[in-house]
Amino acid sequence: MxxxxxxxxxxxxxxxxxxLSSCGRGTRYTTKEFKKAKSLAPxxxxxxxxxxxxxxxxxxxxxxxxxxxAKYLYDKGIAKNIIFSGSAVYTPYFEGLAMKLVADSMxxxxxxxxxxxxxxxxxxxxWYSAKMAKELGFKKVALATDHxxxxxxxxxxxxxxxxxxxxxxxxxxxxxxxxxNLTLPPINDTLAxxxxxxxxxxxxxxxxxxxxxxxxxxxxxx
Length: 222
What we know:
Layout: H1 4-21, H2 28-38, E1 45-49, H3 57-75, E2 82-85, H4 95-105, E3 113-116, H5 122-135, E4 141-143, H6 147-160, H7 176-180, H8 200-203, H9 206-213
Parallel strand pairs: 1-2, 1-4, 2-3
Helix pairs in contact: 1-3, 5-6
């Protein structure tokens, strides 16, 4: 019988594999959502949920795809700023900060990238990043991530995020060589290292993590 820990790892890897294998390269859904979001552009900021830094190749490719998509949206003027979100969840690196450092090293001006490092789950990526955006004075905000995560968050977005616009990755717009190359630009990742790290697999049971994914750990009155 699988333990909660092994089940959690298995589900995370499966989710990443499904995300990558179902890119759909220009699927009808992503293209439609992109056109809809583009008509509303420019956005003051986009929220990019984290993915584990310094992890297996499949998970790393998810992170690379999200960063390249964020850069594409910034370079095209669709987004003025980028909020990368994620705590040290599965590895001892704050995902949001590690992704910001990578994005900065790719040429995005560091004054236009931000790191939210509290979120442990995808719903929290949205909630805490939206809160940060408000504090920074950003009014027009959108979610930018892969289409699987976009669809999984749709219900939460409708219920809690006032139907925030979504810009799922259109993979045809990203150089495929960038996605296949798992070598990241050099960064000082010690800046993103959490010396007090304890994996979420040790801190939360499978059912607690499921509740977190559904946004049940958020204090909506804060």
